[in-house]
Design goal:
Blueprint: H1 5-16, H2 37-44, H3 48-56, H4 64-73, H5 78-91, H6 111-120, E1 125-128, E2 134-137, H7 139-145, H8 158-164, H9 166-171, H10 175-188, H11 195-207, H12 210-216, E3 226-233, E4 237-248, E5 253-260, H13 263-272
Antiparallel strand pairs: 1-2, 1-5, 3-4, 4-5
Length: 287
């Protein structure tokens, strides 16, 4: 096995991507159908010298921003972005250790919060920690979010789903608006230099690229406590939901409740939950 797998990966992809695929003209004197180093470096916004060092294995610790820019320039799929990230961490000796002084990231909702969720049925409601991990939810939320793929995996995360699952753009009509809000919450609602946020941000910088990094760098967008979502649900049809987010003291958790914005959505959620119409009532938008 090569001791420079990261460099081999980058060089192989550079030589496999044609200029036409990235919007560059195809000249008559090209010796290879792939990209020149200078072309990839320009697309990624890095120097040719630095790209050369990466491909030759003389630099094995590129930043997440550089990896994300290279992944965007090469039009890598999510699977290839994940592989790029893994090869980089292996070349650098593995994942960095979380700072021992950092407060522990909550992975479970308190029993009292689970009891609150029970009383909120059949409304779609969930508890999340400060990086968007879903810690607990109502059965109503599972019926809403499960068919969207939002609860897939051992540790569902709202941001990871939104930016890396292709179904998110298909089901969420206001994807861009929702992405703005979730990243603003990640950026503003936690202490600076939080290691868990930094780790997730590095991951999404590589796997999602500029769609995430541009939003993460924008300090002007503030998170909202109330909002709305338009969902094209594969089972319930079009849904218009209002959202309330309540910050819970002590453990960096939030309670998020979704409510129907109109009677059609209320009736659709009742059908989704196997209930007669009227179990949920439309709230309606105000202000």
């Amino acid at each position: 096995m090569s001791d420079n797998e990261l460099g081999t990966f980058l060089r192989t992809w550079r030589e496999a991507v044609t200029p036409a695929e990235v919007g560059l003209p195809t000249g008559p004197r090209r010796r290879t159908p792939g990209l020149r180093r200078a072309e990839l470096a320009t697309l990624a916004g890095i120097s040719v010298e630095y790209l050369t060092r990466l491909e030759q294995g003389r630099d094995r610790n590129p930043s997440a921003q550089v990896l994300g820019a290279l992944a965007d320039a090469l039009h890598l799929s999510l699977a290839d972005r994940l592989l790029l990230r893994r090869l980089t961490k292996e070349a650098d000796g593995g994942d960095p250790l979380v700072c021992a002084a950092a407060p522990p990231l909550s992975r479970r909702a308190r029993p009292t919060l689970r009891a609150v969720l029970d009383h909120l049925e059949p409304a779609p409601a969930l508890v999340v920690n400060w990086i968007g991990d879903v810690l607990a939810h109502t059965a109503g939320y599972e019926r809403l979010a499960g068919p969207l793929g939002q609860l897939d995996g051992e540790r569902p995360n709202l941001l990871r789903y939104l930016f890396t699952d292709e179904r998110a753009r298909r089901f969420h009509r206001d994807w861009s608006h929702l992405a703005d809000d979730l990243v603003a919450r990640l950026r503003h609602d936690v202490p600076l230099r939080d290691p868990y946020v930094a780790e997730l941000a590095d991951e999404l910088t590589v796997t999602a690229g500029a769609e995430f990094t541009d939003r993460f760098a924008d300090l002007a967008t503030a998170p909202r406590r109330t909002g709305s979502q338009h969902i094209e649900h594969p089972e319930a049809g079009p849904l218009r939901l209002l959202q309330e987010t309540l910050a819970l003291p002590g453990e960096g958790q939030s309670l998020v409740v979704h409510l129907p914005a109109d009677e059609a959505t209320a009736a659709a959620l009742d059908r989704l939950n196997g209930r007669r119409p009227g179990a949920l009532r439309a709230v309606g938008e105000t202000g």
